[in-house]
Design a protein that fits this description.
Helices cover about 70% and strands about 5% of the residues. The protein has about 300 residues and is mainly alpha-helical. It has a domain of about 210 residues: Orthogonal Bundle (Farnesyl Diphosphate Synthase), CATH 1.10.600. The strands form two sheets. It has a three-stranded antiparallel sheet with strand order 3-4-5. It has a two-stranded antiparallel ribbon with strand order 1-2. The longest helix is centred in the last third of the chain and has 29 residues. About 5% of the residues have low confidence. The protein binds geranylgeranyl diphosphate (GRG). Geranylgeranyl diphosphate binds next to α4, α8 and α9. The site of geranylgeranyl diphosphate has 15 residues, from α4, α8 and α9.
């Protein structure tokens, strides 16, 4: 029987959607005064609106290489997705990207208001750490602590939030190629890296295997960003500021702006090759991760 990756991705995403639905349902307390319904509704709007669920699926597949218990991995994967959703809710705010639509629907601040969107993002972020601290994630508190600390670092000043700040500052200053690579590894790469690394940590894989999955995540993180930038340029070529390395529309630094589409495509081919080499020792067990890497490089949107 041939392996249907698209079907597999859809059913893994559905599994995450169902688990996220449960988690957010359980946030609604009986007393409106302690659990404001409007905030829960805004959190649901930001988290249950049809994302691809790439990060949780990467975590589940990394953990599956080492036979982890899905009952532990799914909540950890949901925690990561909640952080991703929070970042999108805040990124869409007028003070940042000022977007009206996300995943084809009104952004949280459009459907509610700015203050509610800020609070919904805050509550999604903090809920993620509540989940990671729960015994369901792992019986060993040292594993939960490690997952929690690494998640804080991936999302915080040395990771996504720091990368977003550097990106915002790029509107006012020229970036070198090395600087753009660094800020993108922080802004988008850190959560993708964490997805793969945390799967291996949760499964208590050997340090060598944790390192391999970490490197795989780093490569996937860079490939994801390059593919995203290429999609933007293909959608509106005038957005490419070759001379400045900036996406002219958003004023943000991009590698495709600096290197040009052709070199970017060549780098993507090389990255996919590197990613596949890292998966070789896992043979057939890594077929979904292999397909995911290919999907990230060639995805249509
Ligand atoms: C606000 C702290 C803070 C950080 C925001 C991730 C981020 C940092 C901003 C998003 C800006 C953006 C559109 C970056 C391009 C890469 C990216 C993260 C795309 C969205 O991720 P997907 O494609 O989205 O996985 P879905 O909707 O499928 O979850």
């Amino acid at each position: 029987m041939t392996f249907d990756f698209v079907q597999h991705l859809a059913s893994a995403a559905k599994r995450i959607d169902t688990a996220l639905e449960d988690i957010l349902h359980n946030q609604a307390g009986e007393m409106e005064i302690t659990r404001p319904a409007r905030l829960i509704a805004a959190m649901r709007h930001g988290a249950l609106n049809g994302g691809k669920r790439l990060r949780p699926v990467l975590m589940m597949e990394s953990a599956a290489l080492f036979d982890a218990d899905p009952g532990q991995v799914v909540p950890a994967a949901c925690a990561l997705e909640l952080i991703h959703c929070y970042s999108l809710v805040h990124d869409d705010l007028p003070a940042m990207d000022d977007d009206d639509l996300r995943r084809g629907q009104p952004t949280v601040h459009k459907a509610f208001d700015d203050a509610t969107a800020i609070l919904a993002g805050d509550a999604l972020l903090t809920l993620a750490f509540d989940i990671i601290a729960d015994e369901k994630i792992h019986q060993d508190p040292a594993v939960r602590l490690r997952l929690s600390r690494e998640l804080a670092r991936a999302a915080g000043i040395g990771g996504m939030a720091g990368g977003q700040m550097l990106d915002l500052e790029s509107e006012h200053r020229q970036r070198t190629e090395a600087e753009i690579r660094q800020l993108q590894a922080m802004k988008t790469g850190a959560l993708l890296r964490y997805a793969c690394r945390a799967g291996a940590i949760l499964a208590q894989a050997s340090p060598e295997d944790v390192d391999s999955l970490t490197r795989f995540g780093e490569i996937i993180g860079l490939a994801f960003q390059l593919a995203d930038d290429l999609l933007d340029v293909e959608a509106s070529p005038e957005a490419m500021g070759k001379a400045t390395g900036k996406d002219a529309e958003a004023g943000k630094a991009t590698l495709v702006g600096l290197l040009g589409p052709e070199k970017t495509r060549q780098e993507l081919v090389q990255l996919l090759d590197d990613a596949n080499k890292l998966l070789e020792p896992f043979g057939e067990r890594a077929r979904v991760l292999r397909a995911l890497a290919g999907f990230i490089v060639t995805r249509p949107s």
